[in-house]
């Protein structure tokens, strides 16, 4: 620190009254206590030796157990060419800098709150670290460049240059996608999304048998396949109708849900049958509601398809309710 800055700091400190100094100390203590009282979140992905690289900048990054992508506090400060030092009143160096008159008009309330409240977490190596949501870096750079356009003095030239480097480096790739790639989270993300879908759709217990497929479903299926239908015949459906039902219903109900149902409801090798129907393994709320809604759509499409035109029906179904797989898990909404 230069002598002039040191002298300025001492002068400001001396100008404070004893009450003001006490209030600042109390506020710093409260902020520190608040930070320590928060549950310590664990990082599931990311390592210090695989930082996010933007141009010549390297910023350590992690994905936390709740899915939050974070950049370390020290990494953000370094990227912005700011000293990595603690702030007065328990606040970060980043927050104090952007609260200044030069940038305050361009920093939103949410962004200001984020800079004041870094996330305390445990890295994959076990160390305790502080970080900010990855998206915040972009918002900070936007604020800096807006302030530049409004006219900033030369004293901010270095931080403006850093913001410009970062924004140009992110011009073609989103910050979240970059963090996911660096940490390896992109490989596990679909698996995590599927696990949540299976938990919502598939019940661990076998439910009481209730008719879920209305007679119209099978009547139309017989008609579209060009097979004469009667009530008695409806009870004795061709064996391959099971494969058709899997394709029409379960492969389109939710990503990989058919595979999961087959896993929890396997065929008994001795009897050659399953212990229960697939719909008996669906959850009462999400699973069954999704099944009822899907069957309603299927029957409506069947009804408008001419006799014997099964392939035409499938073409319509592919447009309205396409087959789903694991790659669809992240974007799936039941």
UniProtKB/TrEMBL annotation:
Domain Bacteriophage Mx8 p63 C-terminal: 197-291
A family per Pfam: P63C
Protein name in UniProt: Bacteriophage Mx8 p63 C-terminal domain-containing protein
Organism of origin: Acetobacter ascendens
């Amino acid at each position: 620190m230069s002598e002039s800055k040191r002298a300025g700091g001492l002068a400001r400190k001396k100008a404070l009254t004893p009450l003001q100094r006490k209030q600042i100390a109390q506020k710093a203590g409260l902020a520190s206590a608040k930070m320590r009282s928060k549950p310590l979140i664990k990082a599931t992905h990311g390592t210090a030796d695989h930082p996010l690289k933007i141009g010549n900048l390297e910023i350590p990054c992690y994905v936390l157990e709740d899915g939050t992508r974070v950049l370390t506090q020290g990494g953000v400060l370094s990227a912005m060419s700011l000293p990595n030092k603690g702030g007065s009143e328990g606040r970060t160096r980043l927050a104090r800098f952007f609260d200044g008159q030069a940038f305050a008009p361009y920093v939103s309330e949410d962004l200001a709150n984020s800079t004041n409240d870094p996330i305390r977490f445990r890295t994959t190596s076990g160390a305790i670290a502080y970080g900010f949501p990855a998206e915040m870096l972009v918002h900070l750079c936007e604020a800096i460049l807006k302030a530049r356009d409004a006219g900033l003095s030369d004293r901010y030239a270095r931080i403006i240059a850093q913001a410009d480097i970062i924004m140009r480096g992110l011009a073609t790739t989103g910050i979240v996608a970059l963090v996911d790639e660096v940490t390896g989270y992109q490989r596990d993300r679909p698996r995590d999304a599927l696990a949540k879908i299976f938990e919502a759709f598939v019940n661990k217990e076998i439910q009481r048998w209730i008719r879920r497929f209305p007679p119209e479903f099978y009547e139309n299926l017989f008609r579209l396949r060009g097979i004469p239908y009667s009530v008695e015949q409806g009870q004795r459906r061709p064996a391959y109708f099971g494969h058709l039902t899997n394709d029409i219903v379960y492969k389109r109900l939710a990503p990989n849900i058919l595979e999961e149902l087959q896993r929890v409801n396997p065929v008994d090798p001795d009897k050659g049958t399953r212990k229960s129907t697939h719909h008996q393994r669906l959850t009462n709320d999400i699973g069954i509601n999704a099944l009822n809604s899907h069957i309603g759509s299927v029957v409506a499409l069947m009804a408008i398809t001419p006799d014997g035109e099964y392939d035409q029906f499938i073409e319509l179904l592919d447009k309205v309710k396409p087959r789903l797989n694991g790659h669809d898990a992240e974007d799936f909404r039941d």
